[in-house]
Amino acid sequence: xxxxxxxxxxxxxxxxxxxxxxxxxxxxxxxxxxxxxxxxxxxxxxxxxxxxxxxxxxxxxxxxxxxxxxxxxxxxxxxxxxxxxxxxxxxxxxxxxxxxxxxxxxxxxxxxxxxxxxxxxxxxxxxxxxxxxxxxxxxxxxxxxxxxxxxxxxxxxxxxxxxxxxxxxxxxxxxxxxxxxxxxxxxxxxxxxxxxxxxxxxxxxxxxxxxxxxxxxxxxxxxxxxxxxxxxxxxxxxxxxxxxxxxxxxxxxxxxxxxxxxxxxxxxxxxxxxxxxxxxxxxxxxxxxxxxxxxxxxxxxxxxxxxxxxxxxxxxxxxxxxxxxxxxxxxxxxxxxxxxxxxxxxxxxxxxxxxxxxxxxxxxxxxxxxxxxxxxxxxxxxxxxxxxxxxxxxxxxxxxxxxxxxxxxxxxxxxxxxxxxxxxxxxxxxxxxxxxxxxxxxxxxxxxxxxxxxxxxxxxxxxxxxxxxxxxxxxxxxxxxxxxxxxxxxxxxxxxxxxxxxxxxxxxxxxxxxxxxxxxxxxxxxxxxxxxxxxxxxxxxxxxxxxxxxxxxxxxxxxxxxxxxxxxxxxxxxxxxxxxxxxxxxxxxxxxxxxxxxxxxxxxxxxxxxxxxxxxxxxxxxxxxxxxxxxxxxxxxxxxxxxxxxxxxxxxxxxxxxxxxxxxxxxxxxxxxxxxxxxxxxxxxxxxxxxxxxxxxxxxxxxxxxxxxxxxxxxxxxxxxxxxxxxxxxxxxxxxxxxxxxxxxxxxxxxxxxxxxx
Length: 758
Description:
4-stranded antiparallel beta sheet; globular; alpha+beta; 29 strands; Isoleucyl-tRNA Synthetase, domain 2
């Protein structure tokens, strides 16, 4: 290459220095360094997540001030995969609710880019309704928009600075809450509306987010309710650009008019355009929004004032953490601050040993302080001399670490081939375990057959893992396009949680009852119920349950308390039920005095065999369809049957142990050994029911008289209608009910019921 080719911005490649060239290349990398907004807490010395910030802008741990500011962070360009992440959801057997969550999180919007001239340069606005811009009467910027400072005039500066400070302390969910009054501040500058040629004021408002679109919107109050409320609050013009139908006015008990002062709210929908002609674009008279948008986009591109485009709510993935624990980045920086990958023979980069794991803390109010991770202090490790192509030089290691997602995005692949020292997974192994099953479905994307996980992972772990997997697929390491083919959302275990006056959760185990209320550290707290876990600080320690009842008992109890996809409350005292079941199971197989097998080799009775095989059929069906609680209930029934026998036949004991193994693996292995087997039961085939024992010789049928059940009769399973009718009419309860009357007809529903009509 001669270097004559121009890069974006117009300069030639050969005219760029090393740093500028690195910036151009970084603009196309999947992993790159950029300035990103974070929640910086100097008092803790670290960046905190949104959910760790209280409603008054303080950290939940330590109650320190939290400041939103930009910091240089490693980013992953997940936005490059936005379309595939949406489109490939159609290939997956996932709950539709999770698919909808991911589609909304990615937020693909088809719309237009429109450019507004301002004293500080062009503002780019994204909109899904460029057809309404004849009614645009103001522009609104997010407080974080990079042009706010340049557009703010001297008299307006104090108000804008204060407004930005207040907005920085509010969460995005608060800022976009539709129920909250809309606030803003005027910058003092104006933009030129490219549709009308008129100047319109530029405002800053926190209901606009920098993370969506371009961080700038155009206020069209006649056609958007948020803009309508904002314009009413600040006395801005509301220009009608559609004639709402008479029915719209009638539903709002007002007479049809184009005087927006008399409109109770914005109009959104199809209606003829008005006041929408100018600058060679003629929309007046067009009746539908679709036609209006198409004509407007054509005009934007022809006039050079904009273009049709697609934008996404999804932002690139912030991939840096300022802490010790985490995967180190295999990156070093040269004297110019340019990032370089370390040579392959230095991989993997391992964390250095230290006894100081906490980051440096600062004055809680020092918003301009910079984070110093524990690795920054280990200067012998941070500074390294390498030859990576330009001779041996001194470099500085990256001291941020990767987040927990760096491992959880692909761990299932490593599980398939954990002892491979040459690759993270052998291609043949990957194809065998998670490759596409095109014989089952021509569009099968591959992936784990079944992933059981909570709905809370819907737009974090599950989205990140899909992105990570697609990158590995594009690099040629995988044959599968998706990590998890089928997803099943389990329910939550619920428990009491307690919130203090700051709106933060406190340790549930330390809460005391105080009369009709509750206190924590002497202060009142409010009780609610929610998912047991770290975020609500209401978890019950599994170790405590293990010590009291054993791990198998806890697992069995959790599976038995209800359907797998249903949430249910936790009650420690209920665990004893499954504990007693396992004790009875043990006694049905083991002699408690000798610890040896107590089973008999005598054949089982016909009744016991029937009970066994019907249990096998029910348990197999329950496991296969994830109705584990139903399977456990059938195992309890069989166990109760065996308890009454005195001695358990071996032909029943062995398949019983194999059936309970998926839910109580430790006890099952012990029982399998006691039954005389030297090898693990893991590779034993699951019991198969004998179909001959699944057929009923006799069946019980309800008998209705005039639609009400009056009796139940027992008949042969293959009895004909005449036999069933005779048995029903001969039943004492039926005879007493009809009291000598002659039935007008008797309806027999084979195998289900009998209905006598008198």
